Amino acid sequence: MTQPPLTPDALERIRRAVDDALQGFHGFAPLPLEPPPPPGPETIARYIDHTLLKPEATPDDIARLCATAREFGFASVCVNPRFVPQAVAALRATPVAVCTVVGFPLGATTTGAKVHEAQEALDAGATELDMVQAVGLLKAGLYRAVAEDIAAVVGVAHPRGARVKVILETALLTPEEIAAACFVAQAAGADFVKTSTGFGPGGARVEDVALMRAAVGPNLGVKASGGVRTYEQALAMIAAGATRIGASAGDRIVRQAQGREE
Amino acid sequence: MTQPPLTPDALERIRRAVDDALQGFHGFAPLPLEPPPPPGPETIARYIDHTLLKPEATPDDIARLCATAREFGFASVCVNPRFVPQAVAALRATPVAVCTVVGFPLGATTTGAKVHEAQEALDAGATELDMVQAVGLLKAGLYRAVAEDIAAVVGVAHPRGARVKVILETALLTPEEIAAACFVAQAAGADFVKTSTGFGPGGARVEDVALMRAAVGPNLGVKASGGVRTYEQALAMIAAGATRIGASAGDRIVRQAQGREE
Predict the structure, then answer these.
(1) Residue A246 bridge partners (DSSP)
(2) Residue among B60, B84, B104 whose CB faces A106 most closely
(3) Residue A120 domain-assigned?
(4) Which residues of B87-119 are buried (b: 16+ CB within 10 A; e: fewer)?
(5) What span, in angstroms and rounded, lies between the C-alpha atoms of B149 and B143?
(6) What is the rounded end-to-end Cα distance, in angstroms, of chain B?
(7) How confident is the model at residue A231 (pLDDT cuts 50, 70, 90)?
């Protein structure tokens, strides 16, 4: 497994700084996740959030995305909030969840706006919410504000059985900031930490996934997203600790796993 | 002045298609704007929305942005929603407005989320709202849905004296789609049409600004944003019909106008 770019000592130091900043803060307990099965041609699809978040995507594009997700049995489709009702209707009575995004892709809107967006998505039937953390506040060391922002979304999602993934936007962060963000997300009750929006200056890197897994331990999900386009890349992310893959070409990844495509 | 890339006949045809799609739709009447004065070293600052929308911007970065805007007397600062209260406090008792963004930068969230975001921004003291249109719906020809989305934000902004700029994200659109988007925004009561988020595949182009001005006529504002970094570029945009310039280096543009910087 890839080594994370911070020593256990450095990780522990960052965790203590975050713990100090969060004193008196009471988040929500993380949900336990079972350890991931080894992925092969039959199981790789269940790792994939089949994703279309481009602003110019039309209802027809979303319909095709859902049809493919249904065919392959992906974990979810991940679509922009406006398309949640369409995706929920298209995927009713299938094992494919509907995932949407919150405060996406900058994470710089208000907590109130994020909560509203989450609530509307839950009302419409989404069961997974990928929210972007308040990146600038994290970089400024304002850990409590970042945690409160996440906990507010977790607070509406968990009572309704939905899961929250916190997008860190790792390409904008140092390893120290990635580790701090993981501890903050965990303390705030997030179910997953996730690398990237796909709209930042870079996507998922194996070393960042390894660092995130080292930081959150075994009980949180880690989602690698942004630039994961092949089965080989997906396997490397999973070996480093990812339990979910965000990809716009989930069908291609599965066909590669089955040896049907190069 | 730069010629727009569509003939008057083509424009008229698109306007009729939009009118047909909007039959029975009652938006809000556009606010008249006075014709822009010719910009020089003394007046160019009043064209500029001094802008910082990067997700990693910290409160310190926002403080510096506001101090510069105060010094130069820009039309506004444009910041992400989370920073509106800070900017309003920093710019109290100055002529600099606080502008924020809505549904930014993808425009693909729900109308409800956009309205909530607008409401919170207005409550916090913002007086200009740059909202992203529902790009994918515009491309699908769903003009009424796009207009309803805009009118919902206009409906909360106008009663409180705030202005709404509709970001088209021109780099994702054909000239025909840009023209249609202008007619839709105008019908929905927008105060400005605006080229770009700065997060799309391209920024403001002179020919797009000329087309937007030709489409909306004299009574709406046109904001050129995305990649406008020099006084010369700003003048070209204004000559093509822009009445507002979004720029992250407003101070540099003014210094160039004053001959204090190359």
Answers:
(1) A49, A225
(2) B104
(3) yes
(4) bbebbeeeebbbbbbbbbbbbbbbbbbbbbbbb
(5) 10
(6) 25
(7) very high
The C-alpha angle with vertex B81 and arms to B254 and A145, in degrees rounded to 5, equals 120
Tell me the average pLDDT across A221-245.
Answer: 96
Cβ atoms A108, A136 nearer than 8 A: yes
How many CA atoms does the CB half-sphere of B152 hold within 13 Å? 22
The answer as to whether A30 is a domain residue is: no
- For position B31, what pLDDT does the model report? 45
Q: What is the domain-level CATH number for residue B79?
A: 3.20.20.70
What pTM, to 2 d.p., does this model score?
0.86
* Residue B30 domain-assigned (yes or no): no
Domain count, chain B: 1
Q: How far apart are CA B163 and CA B127, in angstroms?
A: 6
pLDDT of residue B35: 52
CA distance B202 to chain A (A): 14
Interface touch B83/A108, C-beta < 8 Å? yes
CA atoms within 13 A on the CB side of B40: 3
- Does the residue B193 lie in any domain? yes
- Please indicate whether, in this complex, the C-beta atoms of A108 and B53 are within 8 angstroms of each other: yes
Q: What is the ipTM of this complex?
A: 0.81
Please name which of B75, B111, B113 lies closest in space to residue B95, comparing C-alpha atoms: B75
A13-69 tens-digit pLDDT: 888 888 888 877 755 444 444 555 668 888 999 999 999 999 999 999 999 999 999
Distance from the first to the final alpha carbon of chain A: 25
Instruction: Determine, for residues B59 and A113 on separate chains, whether the beta-carbon distance falls below 8 Å.
Output: no
Q: What is the DSSP string of A100-128?
A: EEESTTT--S-HHHHHHHHHHHHHHT--E
Which residue is closest to A171 within chain B, CA to CA?
B56
Please give the structure tokens belonging to residue A122.
């839950």
From A198, which residue of chain B is nearest by alpha-carbon distance? B199
